[in-house]
Amino acid sequence: MGPASKPVEIDASWIFRRSFLLFFLIFELLVWQRLQQRAMRAPRPALLIFLRALGATPRALLWALVAAGFFTLLAILAVRLFVRPILNFWLNPSADSSWGLFHLTASETIVATVPARRRQRFLWKPGSLALTNRRVWFFPANGNDEPWFLKLDDVTRIAAERPIFAELTPIRNWPDHLHISSRSQEDVVFVTADPTAVLGWFDPPVRQDRPALAATSAGHPAGVFDE
Fold first, then answer.
1. SS3 26
2. CATH number of 97-215: 2.30.110.20, 3.30.1510.10, 2.60.120.280, 2.30.29.30?
3. Are the CB atoms for 53 and 32 separated by under 8 Å?
4. Percent of the chain with pLDDT over 70
5. How far apart, in whole angstroms, are the C-alpha atoms of residue 102 and residue 196?
6. Peptide bond into 204 cis (omega under 30)
7. C-alpha–C-alpha distance, residues 130 and 152, integer Å
8. Which side of the chain, N or C, has fewer Cβ within a 10 Å radius?
9. Partners of 191 in beta bridges
């Protein structure tokens, strides 16, 4: 599966406004500090010092605009050249779901699969998230780890939730976490390049208090497994 349909982007206006205010305050403080130092070395009337400060303010505004624009440009380039490719690489771990076929029952077949990571405490284990006609599976990339599975009729809720990190940073289109709740297990959280593709496996998306989800039967869901 390729990168997410909407690549991550920086909120340029958010960065520019805040960086402009910060740079302007810094330049103004430097101006006042320099004027105070000059006044201490050669005492001058307070009015003259005030007029000099007024004359320096437009220059501080200009330098703050230039600095904020340059900083915003650097932030945009950093996201596009570094954050975006690193995130896409992290969201698409190398994992072969076919090795988990021997875990399936005789009448169970894989319908769709996508590269994903499963959160286990503070770690995100790489692997592939797979849908069969009976269960949802996670096959770890490390063959020594046990796969995770959940029966479709045991699922009570699946939702895409915006991570806290994305709420606190000026980055748009950060992939949502997939939160799966069930009757028999603890909640599990996955992350994948395109969480809407996984939500499309279920029909329909349900609230926490609604019955279990049922696998989509019509057509081929996104991330179809090619045999």
1. helix
2. 2.30.29.30
3. yes
4. 76
5. 28
6. yes
7. 12
8. C
9. 117, 177
* Helix (H), strand (E), coil (C) string for 82-148: HHHHHHHHHHCCCCCHHHHHHHCCCCCCEEEEEEEEEEECCEEEEEEEEEECCEEEEEECCCCCCCE
In one letter, which amino acid is 86?
A: I
In 3D space, the residue among 126, 119, 101 whose CA is nearest the CA of residue 186 turns out to be 119
What residues does each domain of the chain span?
Answer: 9-91, 97-215
User: Three-class SS of residue 202?
Assistant: strand
Q: What is the pLDDT of residue 138?
A: 93
CB neighbours (10 Å) of residue 3? 17
The CB-side HSE value for 54 (13 A sphere, CA atoms) comes to 6
> What percent of the chain is predicted at pLDDT more than 90?
32
Residue 194 is predicted with a pLDDT of 85
DSSP letter for 224, please.
B
Q: Both tokens of residue 216?
A: 């989509």
Q: Which of 106-110, 113-117, 176-180, 211-215 has the lowest mean pLDDT?
A: 211-215
Residues 6+ apart with CB under 8 A from 88: 3, 4, 7, 193
pLDDT in tens, 183-223: 888 899 999 988 888 888 876 654 333 333 444 433 445 55
Residue 55: how many other CB atoms lie within 10 Å: 10
